Amino acid sequence: MIPRLLAAVVMLTTIFVAPLAARDVTGTLAKIDTTGTITIGYRESQPPMSFVDDSGAPVGYSLDLCREIVAEIETELGKAVAIDYLPVSAIERFTAVESGKIDILCGSTTVTLARRERVDFTLLTFATGGSYMALKGSNVVNNFAGKKIGVVKNTTTLTALKELFKETGTVVEIVEFDSTEQGFTDLVSKKIDIFSADQVVLIGLALKSGRAGDFTILPDLFSFEPFALAIGRNDADFRLVADKALTRIYRSGAIDLIYDKWFGRFSKSMPSALKSMIKLNSIPEK
Protein backbone atom coordinates (compact mmCIF):
# COMPACT_ATOMS: atom_id res chain seq x y z
CA MET A 1 0.00 0.00 0.00
CA ILE A 2 2.75 2.44 1.02
CA PRO A 3 4.87 1.80 -2.13
CA ARG A 4 1.81 2.47 -4.27
CA LEU A 5 1.10 5.67 -2.34
CA LEU A 6 4.71 6.79 -2.70
CA ALA A 7 4.60 6.04 -6.41
CA ALA A 8 1.46 8.12 -6.76
CA VAL A 9 3.06 11.00 -4.85
CA VAL A 10 6.16 10.85 -7.06
CA MET A 11 4.00 10.79 -10.19
CA LEU A 12 1.94 13.79 -9.03
CA THR A 13 5.11 15.65 -8.06
CA THR A 14 6.53 15.02 -11.51
CA ILE A 15 3.35 16.25 -13.18
CA PHE A 16 3.20 19.49 -11.22
CA VAL A 17 6.91 20.27 -10.84
CA ALA A 18 8.20 19.46 -14.34
CA PRO A 19 6.57 22.44 -16.08
CA LEU A 20 8.01 24.79 -13.43
CA ALA A 21 11.46 23.33 -13.84
CA ALA A 22 11.27 23.67 -17.60
CA ARG A 23 9.53 27.10 -17.28
CA ASP A 24 6.33 27.51 -19.20
CA VAL A 25 6.82 29.43 -22.42
CA THR A 26 4.23 30.97 -24.70
CA GLY A 27 3.90 32.46 -28.17
CA THR A 28 6.99 32.47 -30.36
CA LEU A 29 9.16 30.88 -27.67
CA ALA A 30 6.75 27.95 -27.46
CA LYS A 31 6.84 27.56 -31.24
CA ILE A 32 10.64 27.62 -31.25
CA ASP A 33 10.70 25.12 -28.38
CA THR A 34 8.46 22.76 -30.37
CA THR A 35 10.15 23.10 -33.76
CA GLY A 36 13.72 23.67 -32.57
CA THR A 37 14.02 26.40 -35.20
CA ILE A 38 13.78 30.20 -35.36
CA THR A 39 13.13 32.03 -38.63
CA ILE A 40 15.09 35.26 -39.02
CA GLY A 41 13.97 37.75 -41.63
CA TYR A 42 16.69 39.94 -43.12
CA ARG A 43 17.29 42.54 -45.82
CA GLU A 44 19.62 41.58 -48.66
CA SER A 45 21.03 45.02 -49.50
CA GLN A 46 21.17 47.19 -46.37
CA PRO A 47 24.88 47.17 -45.50
CA PRO A 48 26.28 47.27 -42.90
CA MET A 49 23.09 46.50 -40.98
CA SER A 50 21.81 43.53 -43.00
CA PHE A 51 23.08 42.24 -46.33
CA VAL A 52 24.44 39.24 -48.21
CA ASP A 53 28.21 38.78 -48.35
CA ASP A 54 30.24 37.40 -51.26
CA SER A 55 29.57 33.83 -50.14
CA GLY A 56 25.81 34.42 -50.13
CA ALA A 57 25.49 34.40 -46.34
CA PRO A 58 23.34 36.96 -44.50
CA VAL A 59 25.59 39.20 -42.38
CA GLY A 60 25.64 42.60 -40.71
CA TYR A 61 25.33 44.54 -37.47
CA SER A 62 21.67 43.59 -36.94
CA LEU A 63 22.31 39.94 -37.84
CA ASP A 64 25.02 39.76 -35.17
CA LEU A 65 22.56 41.10 -32.60
CA CYS A 66 19.95 38.56 -33.70
CA ARG A 67 22.40 35.69 -33.34
CA GLU A 68 23.10 36.82 -29.77
CA ILE A 69 19.35 36.74 -29.18
CA VAL A 70 19.25 33.16 -30.50
CA ALA A 71 21.99 32.24 -28.02
CA GLU A 72 19.85 33.72 -25.23
CA ILE A 73 16.85 31.71 -26.44
CA GLU A 74 18.96 28.53 -26.32
CA THR A 75 19.85 29.32 -22.71
CA GLU A 76 16.22 30.02 -21.88
CA LEU A 77 14.95 26.80 -23.46
CA GLY A 78 17.94 24.66 -22.50
CA LYS A 79 18.36 23.33 -26.02
CA ALA A 80 20.04 24.12 -29.34
CA VAL A 81 18.04 26.21 -31.81
CA ALA A 82 18.56 26.06 -35.58
CA ILE A 83 18.27 29.24 -37.65
CA ASP A 84 16.35 29.57 -40.91
CA TYR A 85 17.16 32.79 -42.78
CA LEU A 86 14.49 34.34 -44.98
CA PRO A 87 15.11 37.46 -47.12
CA VAL A 88 12.30 40.03 -47.08
CA SER A 89 11.76 43.27 -48.98
CA ALA A 90 10.84 46.66 -47.53
CA ILE A 91 7.29 46.15 -48.76
CA GLU A 92 6.67 42.66 -47.34
CA ARG A 93 8.72 42.76 -44.13
CA PHE A 94 5.97 43.73 -41.68
CA THR A 95 3.44 41.38 -43.24
CA ALA A 96 5.99 38.59 -42.78
CA VAL A 97 6.20 39.42 -39.07
CA GLU A 98 2.42 39.73 -38.66
CA SER A 99 1.73 36.40 -40.35
CA GLY A 100 4.41 34.54 -38.39
CA LYS A 101 6.36 33.81 -41.56
CA ILE A 102 9.39 35.19 -39.74
CA ASP A 103 9.92 35.32 -35.98
CA ILE A 104 12.13 38.41 -35.90
CA LEU A 105 13.13 41.04 -38.45
CA CYS A 106 16.85 41.80 -38.42
CA GLY A 107 17.48 44.78 -40.68
CA SER A 108 17.50 48.57 -40.55
CA THR A 109 13.98 49.08 -39.29
CA THR A 110 12.86 52.40 -37.82
CA VAL A 111 10.46 52.32 -34.89
CA THR A 112 7.33 54.43 -35.39
CA LEU A 113 4.02 54.54 -33.55
CA ALA A 114 2.17 53.67 -36.74
CA ARG A 115 4.32 50.57 -37.22
CA ARG A 116 3.68 49.56 -33.61
CA GLU A 117 0.03 49.17 -34.54
CA ARG A 118 1.14 46.23 -36.69
CA VAL A 119 4.23 44.80 -34.95
CA ASP A 120 6.16 45.13 -31.72
CA PHE A 121 9.81 46.08 -31.31
CA THR A 122 12.71 45.13 -29.07
CA LEU A 123 14.85 47.67 -27.26
CA LEU A 124 16.48 50.15 -29.62
CA THR A 125 19.51 48.82 -31.49
CA PHE A 126 20.80 51.84 -33.44
CA ALA A 127 20.24 55.55 -34.00
CA THR A 128 20.74 57.32 -37.33
CA GLY A 129 18.82 59.57 -39.74
CA GLY A 130 18.01 60.20 -43.38
CA SER A 131 20.70 61.65 -45.63
CA TYR A 132 21.74 61.96 -49.27
CA MET A 133 24.36 60.33 -51.49
CA ALA A 134 25.59 61.65 -54.84
CA LEU A 135 28.49 60.98 -57.17
CA LYS A 136 31.49 63.04 -56.14
CA GLY A 137 31.94 66.14 -58.27
CA SER A 138 28.33 66.25 -59.42
CA ASN A 139 27.60 69.27 -57.20
CA VAL A 140 23.89 68.35 -57.15
CA VAL A 141 23.77 68.25 -53.35
CA ASN A 142 24.03 72.04 -53.33
CA ASN A 143 20.90 72.46 -55.46
CA PHE A 144 18.12 69.87 -55.34
CA ALA A 145 15.65 71.78 -57.51
CA GLY A 146 14.59 69.75 -60.55
CA LYS A 147 16.78 66.79 -59.62
CA LYS A 148 15.85 63.10 -59.57
CA ILE A 149 16.07 61.75 -56.03
CA GLY A 150 15.82 58.00 -55.51
CA VAL A 151 14.42 56.39 -52.37
CA VAL A 152 13.09 52.94 -51.42
CA LYS A 153 9.32 52.43 -51.27
CA ASN A 154 7.49 51.96 -47.98
CA THR A 155 10.23 53.55 -45.84
CA THR A 156 10.31 56.33 -43.27
CA THR A 157 12.90 58.03 -45.47
CA LEU A 158 10.34 58.39 -48.26
CA THR A 159 7.79 59.87 -45.85
CA ALA A 160 10.33 62.32 -44.41
CA LEU A 161 11.51 63.37 -47.89
CA LYS A 162 8.02 64.17 -49.10
CA GLU A 163 7.31 66.22 -45.97
CA LEU A 164 10.64 68.05 -46.25
CA PHE A 165 10.22 69.12 -49.87
CA LYS A 166 6.61 70.07 -49.25
CA GLU A 167 7.69 72.35 -46.40
CA THR A 168 10.55 73.95 -48.35
CA GLY A 169 8.61 74.20 -51.61
CA THR A 170 11.47 72.55 -53.49
CA VAL A 171 10.31 70.84 -56.68
CA VAL A 172 12.08 67.52 -57.25
CA GLU A 173 11.30 64.24 -58.98
CA ILE A 174 11.14 61.42 -56.45
CA VAL A 175 11.92 58.03 -57.98
CA GLU A 176 10.79 55.07 -55.86
CA PHE A 177 12.64 51.74 -55.86
CA ASP A 178 11.80 48.28 -54.57
CA SER A 179 15.26 47.85 -53.04
CA THR A 180 18.30 49.80 -51.89
CA GLU A 181 20.43 47.91 -54.39
CA GLN A 182 18.30 49.12 -57.31
CA GLY A 183 18.54 52.73 -56.16
CA PHE A 184 22.29 52.56 -55.70
CA THR A 185 22.75 50.96 -59.13
CA ASP A 186 20.75 53.75 -60.78
CA LEU A 187 22.83 56.37 -58.97
CA VAL A 188 26.06 54.81 -60.23
CA SER A 189 24.67 54.66 -63.78
CA LYS A 190 23.49 58.30 -63.44
CA LYS A 191 19.82 57.48 -64.00
CA ILE A 192 19.11 59.46 -60.83
CA ASP A 193 21.03 62.41 -59.39
CA ILE A 194 20.78 61.60 -55.69
CA PHE A 195 19.98 58.52 -53.64
CA SER A 196 18.45 58.99 -50.19
CA ALA A 197 18.36 56.50 -47.32
CA ASP A 198 19.40 56.23 -43.69
CA GLN A 199 22.91 57.65 -43.45
CA VAL A 200 24.28 54.43 -41.97
CA VAL A 201 22.98 52.50 -45.00
CA LEU A 202 24.51 54.99 -47.44
CA ILE A 203 27.86 54.64 -45.69
CA GLY A 204 27.56 50.86 -45.91
CA LEU A 205 26.76 51.00 -49.63
CA ALA A 206 29.80 53.17 -50.31
CA LEU A 207 32.12 50.91 -48.31
CA LYS A 208 30.76 47.70 -49.83
CA SER A 209 31.24 49.06 -53.35
CA GLY A 210 35.00 49.28 -52.80
CA ARG A 211 34.88 52.77 -54.33
CA ALA A 212 33.90 54.89 -51.33
CA GLY A 213 35.88 57.83 -52.70
CA ASP A 214 33.53 58.07 -55.69
CA PHE A 215 30.62 59.23 -53.54
CA THR A 216 29.61 62.21 -51.46
CA ILE A 217 27.38 61.66 -48.41
CA LEU A 218 25.95 64.72 -46.73
CA PRO A 219 26.84 64.93 -43.01
CA ASP A 220 23.54 66.56 -42.03
CA LEU A 221 20.47 64.45 -41.27
CA PHE A 222 16.92 65.43 -42.24
CA SER A 223 15.19 62.89 -39.98
CA PHE A 224 15.70 60.87 -36.80
CA GLU A 225 15.63 57.10 -37.30
CA PRO A 226 15.73 54.92 -34.15
CA PHE A 227 16.24 51.29 -35.18
CA ALA A 228 15.00 48.15 -33.44
CA LEU A 229 14.20 44.53 -34.29
CA ALA A 230 10.56 43.88 -35.20
CA ILE A 231 8.67 40.97 -33.64
CA GLY A 232 5.02 39.94 -33.35
CA ARG A 233 2.66 41.89 -31.12
CA ASN A 234 1.45 40.61 -27.73
CA ASP A 235 4.43 38.28 -27.30
CA ALA A 236 5.89 39.39 -23.97
CA ASP A 237 8.00 36.28 -23.28
CA PHE A 238 9.79 36.46 -26.63
CA ARG A 239 10.40 40.19 -26.34
CA LEU A 240 11.77 39.77 -22.81
CA VAL A 241 14.33 37.20 -23.96
CA ALA A 242 15.34 39.43 -26.88
CA ASP A 243 15.67 42.45 -24.60
CA LYS A 244 17.70 40.43 -22.09
CA ALA A 245 20.20 39.58 -24.80
CA LEU A 246 20.44 43.17 -26.05
CA THR A 247 20.83 44.80 -22.66
CA ARG A 248 23.53 42.30 -21.66
CA ILE A 249 25.42 43.15 -24.85
CA TYR A 250 25.11 46.84 -23.99
CA ARG A 251 26.08 46.52 -20.32
CA SER A 252 29.06 44.25 -20.99
CA GLY A 253 30.54 46.49 -23.66
CA ALA A 254 30.28 43.74 -26.29
CA ILE A 255 28.36 46.22 -28.43
CA ASP A 256 31.64 48.12 -28.93
CA LEU A 257 33.18 45.10 -30.66
CA ILE A 258 30.13 44.63 -32.88
CA TYR A 259 30.13 48.32 -33.80
CA ASP A 260 33.86 48.27 -34.61
CA LYS A 261 33.41 45.14 -36.74
CA TRP A 262 30.91 46.84 -39.03
CA PHE A 263 31.79 50.54 -38.76
CA GLY A 264 35.47 50.56 -37.80
CA ARG A 265 36.61 51.25 -41.37
CA PHE A 266 34.53 54.41 -41.41
CA SER A 267 34.63 55.65 -37.83
CA LYS A 268 36.48 54.29 -34.81
CA SER A 269 34.47 56.54 -32.51
CA MET A 270 30.84 55.66 -31.87
CA PRO A 271 28.51 58.64 -32.50
CA SER A 272 27.31 60.39 -29.33
CA ALA A 273 23.65 59.72 -30.19
CA LEU A 274 24.34 55.98 -30.38
CA LYS A 275 26.32 56.04 -27.12
CA SER A 276 23.39 57.74 -25.39
CA MET A 277 20.94 55.24 -26.85
CA ILE A 278 23.01 52.31 -25.58
CA LYS A 279 23.29 53.87 -22.12
CA LEU A 280 19.54 54.47 -21.91
CA ASN A 281 18.81 50.89 -23.01
CA SER A 282 21.28 49.25 -20.60
CA ILE A 283 18.51 48.03 -18.31
CA PRO A 284 19.67 46.49 -14.99
CA GLU A 285 19.33 42.73 -14.63
CA LYS A 286 17.65 42.90 -11.21
Please characterize this protein's 3D structure.
The chain is α/β, with parallel strands linked by helices. The chain has 2 domains: 2-128 and 226-280, D-Maltodextrin-Binding Protein, domain 2 (3-Layer(aba) Sandwich); 130-217, Periplasmic binding protein-like II (D-Maltodextrin-Binding Protein, domain 2), CATH 3.40.190.10. It is built from 10 helices and 13 strands. Strands 10-9-11-8-12 form a 5-stranded mixed beta sheet, sandwiched between helices. A 3-stranded parallel beta sheet has the order 5-1-6, with helices on both faces. Strand 9 (148-152), helix 5 and strand 10 (173-177) form a beta-alpha-beta unit. Helix 3 (61-77) crosses helix 8 (236-252). The longest helix has 21 residues, at 2-22. The N and C termini lie far apart (48 Å). Mean pLDDT is 90; it is low at 1-22.
What is this entry, summarized?
This protein has 286 residues and is of the alpha/beta class. The protein is 43% helix and 22% strand.
- Give me the CATH superfamily of the largest domain: Periplasmic binding protein-like II
Average of pLDDT: 90
Give the helix/strand class: alpha/beta
Number of strands: 13
Describe the largest sheet.
Answer: 5 strands, mixed
Q: How much of the sequence is in beta strands?
A: 15-25%
How much is the radius of gyration in Å? 23 Å
In the CATH scheme, what's the topology name of the largest domain? D-Maltodextrin-Binding Protein, domain 2
Helix and strand pattern: HHEEEEHEHEEEEHEHEHEEHHH
User: N-to-C terminal Cα separation, in Å?
Assistant: 48 Å
Q: Judging from the principal axes of the Cα atoms, what is the shape?
A: globular
Low-confidence stretches: 1-22
The helix fraction, in percent, is 40-55%
Largest sheet, order of strands side by side?
10-9-11-8-12
Tally of individual domains? 2
CATH class of the largest domain: Alpha Beta
- The CATH architecture of the largest domain can be named as 3-Layer(aba) Sandwich
- How many alpha or pi helices? 10
